[in-house]
Specification:
2 copies of one chain form a homodimer. Chain A has 4 helices and 11 strands, in the order H-E-E-E-E-E-E-E-H-E-E-E-H-E-H. Chain A is an alpha+beta fold. Chain A has 2 domains: 35 residues; 137 residues, Alpha-Beta Complex (Nucleoside Triphosphate Pyrophosphohydrolase), CATH 3.90.79.10. A 4-stranded mixed sheet of chain A has the order 7-4-9-8, sandwiched between helices. In chain A, strands 1-2-3 form a 3-stranded antiparallel sheet, with no helix packed on it. A 3-stranded antiparallel sheet of chain A has the order 6-5-10. In chain A, strand 2 and strand 3 form a beta hairpin. The longest helix of chain A has 20 residues. Chain A starts with 8 loop residues before the first helix and ends with a helix. The interface between A and B is large, with 70 and 70 residues.
Chain lengths: 212, 212
């Protein structure tokens, strides 16, 4: 491969590509860094996720026992109607003993992509389908004790379903259609306990729509 | 008490007060509604919280086994410097194997109020103290599987500490001071996995500051 101890153009090119890739990986080192798994201490399985306590070593060398929820991930939609209203749900959550304002969202099923999951959930939970989808990024709701990632989407060009899609039996949901200003006021009012994934998705949706 | 079958002014007043109270409770019925606890199935204790699986009956009558994290709650600060920059942390989170952008926050200790907790955390994590505090409401990060509530505050009139306050040994934190526009751009860039409590708190801080 090496002629007269020198590299040819193609070899230079290949090495440059590899170097750039290596630099990219090094730059990302600060963002993605695995802890070292030592041993599983205990585990409980719930319906859609499990809870594990593991002995792990953190990147800074500290070792300890940490408990967290292992979750398959979820997808969420901010649905905007043709006349620029926002569809949002009033939904019961047993863990906080409250009805919260939440965008349609759901846990990924095995082998399901986020976009296919949310196309199903928006029908089951809100009774709408959407023809125009845009990605709004990914959030982590509780990085202190859950590995869950929620994929955010903007759903537009909506059509109301003229049939009912059955969701989970234990879901207790009311569908609201709000002016964007009304949603902003509900968030600032102090009357609502804020659902963090919903406010984060709304922030991203507003950023996206403001740039159009 | 009743003269000639009629109520006097004071009695009318008392009944009116009770009626208003009753109406307030009825209006809130839709927001706060307890599930009925049936029995504890299993439990695991972690360092700062526990995980329980309980058999419960939901307000809509559906009964099932549900697992969730019982958490003491937390407090968070959006720190704004005197020259209107935002202080934010780059912090390692083992559960998601990443460094995230997060506002200073911490779990409430036993008997600690949210405001006292965050006054301690902002010193330990960011190395600043604040003289001006405003409430920005409360969020729930993961109402599907945690009862945690996070109390949000705006922290202004900051002073840099000239000594180091030791936080938890397992915390791995870098302090960043950003222009607000830079933070908005980081959130919209797609390069960051978004921390939902941080974006929600930033949304609320911007709402609050825009109204000044």
């Amino acid at each position: 491969m090496i002629q007269n101890g020198l590299l040819n153009d193609l070899q230079y090119q290949k090495i440059t590509v590899k170097l750039i890739l290596y630099l990219k990986i090094m730059c990302n080192k600060n963002l993605i860094k695995r802890s070292i798994f030592k041993e599983k201490i205990s585990e409980l399985k719930s319906k859609k996720f499990s809870f594990e306590i593991n002995r792990i070593e953190l990147p800074n060398g500290h070792e300890g026992e940490y408990g967290y929820i292992k979750h398959p991930g979820a997808a969420l939609a901010v649905p905007i109607t043709k006349d620029n209203k926002v569809i949002i749900l009033r939904q019961y959550r047993f863990a906080v003993s409250r009805y919260l304002l939440e965008f349609p969202a759901g846990t990924l099923e095995i082998g399901e992509t986020p976009i296919n999951s949310i196309k199903r959930e928006i029908q089951e939970e809100a009774g709408f389908s959407a023809n125009k989808w845009d990605e709004l990024g990914t959030l982590v709701p509780a990085p202190g004790y859950a590995d869950e990632e929620i994929y955010l989407f903007l759903a537009r060009d909506l059509s109301k379903l003229n049939y009912e899609v059955r969701g989970d039996l234990d879901e207790d949901i009311e569908v609201l259609i709000l002016d964007p200003d009304k949603l902003d006021n509900l968030i600032s009012s102090g009357d609502e306990i804020l659902d963090a994934k919903t406010v984060t998705a709304w922030f991203r949706a507003k950023q996206f729509l403001d740039k159009l």
